[in-house]
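Practice problem: predict the structure.
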Amino acid sequence: MAYCLPVNSFFPRLRVSTLGVLVVLVDTARPSVGLRTTDSPIVVTEIRKIIHVDMDAFYASVEQRDDPALRGRPVAVGHGAKRGVVAAASYEARAFGVRSAMPSTTAMRQCPELVFVRPRFDVYRAVSQQIRAIFAHYTALVEPLSLDEAYLDVSGNLRGLPSASATASEIRARIFSETGLTASAGISYNKFLAKLASDHRKPNGQFVVTPATGLSFISALPVRRFHGVGPVTADKMNRLGIFTGADLARQSLNFLKQHFGKAGPWYYSIARGEDDRAVTPHRLRKSSGSETTFSDDLTDIAAIEAGVTAMADEVWAWCEKAQSFGRTVTVKIKYADFRQATRSRTLRTRVASKDALRDISIGLVRTIFPPITGIRLLGVTMSGFERDEAPAPVQLGLDL
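Answer:
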């Protein structure tokens, strides 16, 4: 026997699966509230309404907005030096194959007319705050992923708009009106699908994936497009004959666990359109790190230790500002031939001072002395932050 529920919030302990418009809940205990019993499955019409907002070429677009001479030209935010890296590229630059994280020398070979602009992170942070203030008019459930993207749970419909799609359209229009920048949006019933959808109409567009279209949308996509499936994992999936979401959905849970370990259940779920993660406001960072690529390879011991000390000081400055301190320190070393090594140490208690972080970092980098070749990059990261996270409240009541 099943019970008809007007909304699933009556029984928050029940797990809801949103594979389609009809959502079936099974409970072995008879409800204590006076609900009508029936021999039919429970039908719950309310589902979450998630928007993923992603700014279009954010850093580069801010630079083109602020300098009219850059508009319509291929722009890269970053450093054009021989060891520089592209932090962001305008759509004009992307047409030449220029991408973020690409070495500057490679980018300039692909686009000789590429204009490099030094990043202005203080400006990007200020614009990001403007955008988040807009989000706050529509929901309290905002989970920033970076300066230029965020998840919003708009199920509560604070503005009384007819649908989540209308909400996304209004948010995008306000962003453009107040900042002069365009944004793309994905709208769906969970975070995984919303993020995939936001890429579907870029730039300056939006796309909706409903419960009725979720499985077909996933089935047709290459697994390389899936958020959380990196190039190495995608290559491994391809070797196993998994190229699309449909291929992934045909695999058993045991098969995916066998080949992908702890990630296996996640791949099994997303192939079926399942993602129960809540939109979590005030998500705490799990780590803080700083790294730098040197213009010339470091071979001198004193110079290497000085580089690590500088990175440790930058990490500590952030930790002091955020009042977040971890127990694990990791030093990253990248050699001139691009081989990479990491060294970590975990303490019983949190790192207590800048001097302690410096000492630990220097101690870790000394384990690779003498270096096998010159060092092109050094980084220091602190992780293992102590944090308490509370689940976000559920809101209902808005069509996709």
